[in-house]
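Re: the request from the purification team.
They wanted to know what the chain is likely to look like in 3D before they choose a buffer screen. I agreed to run a prediction and write the result into the notebook, where they can find it.
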Amino acid sequence: MPRPKKKSPSLHPDLESVLYTEAQIKKRIRTLAGELKAVYGDGEFTIVSLINGAIMFTADLMREIDNPVRLDCIRISSYGAKTKSVGAPQLIATLTLDIANRHVLIVDDILDTGKTLTLVAGLVRKLGPASLRTCVLLDKTARREVPFEADFVGFKIPDKFVIGYGLDYAERYRNLPCIGVLNPAAAG
């Protein structure tokens, strides 16, 4: 009996296009973990994840790291229900771990204006880490408003509003396994 043909996965109706598939993301995260290993060796470091957006990226990145790591999270709000940053990012929840004299890696989903990472890096520096580096899944350089460059970058992307793999629009679409461009009609 002939096998039924597999349906090709359809594009989510609110996606204009897919920038990176789940397989491409996983492959790049494995490479990033290798880059981190080259810097940190076998030493311990503390990951500070910016949630909610970086939760999936952080979890998958940690699964690829065999170093001893500590994890803490900071919650920042910068978009609300908009497709553009709404001014100054606001700190909603801060660190609970002591990071003084420890190697710290800030992990975020996307670097665009630079305001959020500038704020968080400044807060972390005040706590006296031994070293501070940043790792972002996506870098949207066209939107930079303050000078900030991440130490580790997954992908450079065009100036499009992206969703999926932790990135949201109005708290939706974080669960998509890919990273895609939001269809402007879905943004209302």
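For the purification team: Helices lie at 22-40, 55-63, 115-125.
Please add any questions underneath this entry.
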